[in-house]
Amino acid sequence: MTIHLALIRHGPTDWNTEKRLQGRIDTHLSLAGRARVSGYRVPPAMMSFQRYCSPMARAQQTAQIVFGDGPWATAPELTEISYGEWEGRILSDLRQELGEEMRLNEARGLDFCAPGGESPRMVQARLAPLLQRWVQAGEDVLAITHKGVIRAIYAWAAGWDMTGKIPDKLRWDAVHLFTLDAKGIPHVLQLNAPLGATTQGGS
């Protein structure tokens, strides 16, 4: 049996606009973010998927707008990557401030990690039991989560070590569709399936 996993990033926040690292800071959707998400339309083929959401406010608010009163379950494993001491900071400022130290850290790819935070590899490890449970349940899943989580799953599926240029450009106003094999390992099926909104930036 092929299990499908569809991932949607939450809508924009004020911190996205300011290019701040959000991580575990529980920000809310901006007014512009709410307006953008209100234009999202989930592809009909995914409407029957089981629905899950990160527990963070910006993801829960996105789920409320996208799903309306429809049910969804909260999965803590879908919480955004932790940026530890860097949360609230701007990445370009950190690069300028830390110089070579930051360059070497970013060159670690999957093991890039903020002080007191998580690496993408650590995110993959905390997601693995959840993906395995979904496979065991035999259910297709549509999840609203975060950029760091989607990038971690994409890297796992694409065999990308997160060094160098990303093999595929990911849009953040789109659905990213994967399959899960019998061990819960993700594989890319379709990236950037449109949601009926314009492309969003931010981090």
Question: Would you kindly provide a written description of the structure presented here, covering whatever features stand out?
Answer:
With 203 residues, the protein is an alpha/beta fold. Helix content is 33%, strand content 17%. It has seven helices and six strands, in the order E-H-H-E-H-E-H-H-H-E-H-E-E. The protein has helices spanning 14-18, 31-37, 57-67, 91-98, 100-106, 120-137, 147-158, and strands spanning 3-9, 50-53, 73-74, 141-145, 174-180, 186-194. The protein has a six-stranded mixed sheet. Strand 5 (174-180) and strand 6 (186-194) form a beta hairpin. Helix 6 (120-137) packs across helix 7. The chain is globular and about 50 Å long. The N and C termini lie far apart (35 Å). Mean pLDDT is 94; it is low at 197-203.
Question: Which helices and strands, and how do they pair?
Answer:
Blueprint lengths: L2 E7 L4 H5 L12 H7 L12 E4 L3 H11 L5 E2 L16 H8 L1 H7 L13 H18 L3 E5 L1 H12 L15 E7 L5 E9 L9
Parallel strand pairs: 1-4, 2-3, 2-4
Antiparallel strand pairs: 1-5, 5-6
Low-confidence stretches: 197-203
Q: Please work out how many helical segments DSSP would assign.
A: 7
Largest sheet: 6 strands, mixed
Structural class: alpha/beta
Tell me the strand order in the biggest sheet.
3-2-4-1-5-6
**What does the overall shape look like?**
globular
Concise account of the structure shown:
With 203 residues, this protein is of the alpha/beta class. It has helices at 14-18, 31-37, 57-67, 91-98, 100-106, 120-137, 147-158; strands spanning 3-9, 50-53, 73-74, 141-145, 174-180, 186-194.
